[in-house]
Amino acid sequence: MRASAAAQRVASWFLDSGIQQADGGVARYYRSDSRRYAPVSTEITGYAVSALAWLDGIAAAECLNGALRSAGYLLDAWDERNATFPFEPVLNGGRGYAYFFDCGIIARGLLAAWRATGQAEYLEMAKRCGLSMAFDFIADDGMHPILQLPEKQPLAYEAQWSRSPGCYQLKSAMAWRELAEATGRSELVSAYERMAAFAMATHAGFLPGDPSDERVMDRLHAYAYFLEGLLPASDRAGERAAIAEGIERISGYLRKIAPIFARSDVYAQLLRLRLYADALGIAPLDEPAAAAEADAVAGFQQADGERRIAGGFWFGRKNGDLLPFVNPVSAAFCVQALVMWEQFQRGEFQADIALLV
Predict the structure, then answer these.
(1) DSSP summary character for residue 318
(2) What sections of the chain are H helices per DSSP?
(3) Could you report the per-residue pLDDT of 99-143, keeping only the tens digit for each?
(4) Strand pairing of 30-31 and 325-326?
(5) How far is it, in rounded angstroms, from Cα 196 to Cα 250?
(6) What is the spatial distance between Cα 91 and Cα 276, in angstroms, rounded to a whole number?
(7) Domain total for the chain?
(8) Residues 32, 13: contact at Cβ < 8 Å?
(9) pLDDT at 2
(10) Which CATH number characterizes residue 24's domain?
(11) Which of 75, 140, 261, 304 is the most buried (most CB within 10 A)?
(12) Range of the domain at 132
């Protein structure tokens, strides 16, 4: 299937499958075995805004309207009392959580909506989110990953990568760079640079990081976030070397572990990184490897079937069998990788870092 057709199908899935609810909120995934949607997540809704804004003009013209429905949901989801985006709504002054990583993804989604429309409300909310990230989550080592609301006290760190500071947080710190360019607030560049220095100092030990191959596959997804977060600093020799070496590290582990467990988003993230690294002069593209990864990515799209799965992308495979999760983040990363690969083949790919979902 050509990437343009894949994009049209995934756009229809985002807009018509039910994964985006009537109020614009987007469910974390759809389970085909139980025929149930997971609850809505502000983070996943942020990803959907970025993906749909990018798909507008590539696929269905309705994509921008879908992006703005989700952006509207995010405007309403802002917790004014706590001045942050909660993971899920905090009701009646109750307790909840805010995640550093989620806030960065939400801010980047709102920036995508602002770039698409010029409407100041999206930029203003992205700025408020970015400032709360810089002030509320700051820690001696990276950024606190999770805050308890309403106290805004950090939760105790855990061994799981997403519950401890780590190099993966640099993906969300990209929001600071983009906000600085949009607003001229230089302190946000400084916030990104602090996070980049921490990530560069600590990333070497992130992989493999676990004796379980399945959990290493999950960490490949997170390590790709780190490499994506380095792209805005790819004019520096150390960061360029880390990106080039990191691509090879992910590729090696992915080939080893994929027969047991393979995540579609890891294939897609790796392919996107290869394309950006080539376009930015960091590392020449290994075209046979990229072609194989594109084929693998395409194999995760559901070509037909009932509306809740048709056009979506499956999260992954274990021992060759598809797992029963149709996932918005997998869909966003996978379709972007396929379209960018096709653009490269036509000589049209441009490494616009702000467009990387």
Answers:
(1) E
(2) 3-16, 42-55, 63-77, 100-117, 120-136, 170-183, 186-202, 213-230, 237-257, 264-279, 287-298, 328-345
(3) 999 999 999 999 999 999 999 999 999 999 999 999 999 998 889
(4) antiparallel
(5) 20
(6) 42
(7) 1
(8) no
(9) 67
(10) 1.50.10.10
(11) 261
(12) 3-355
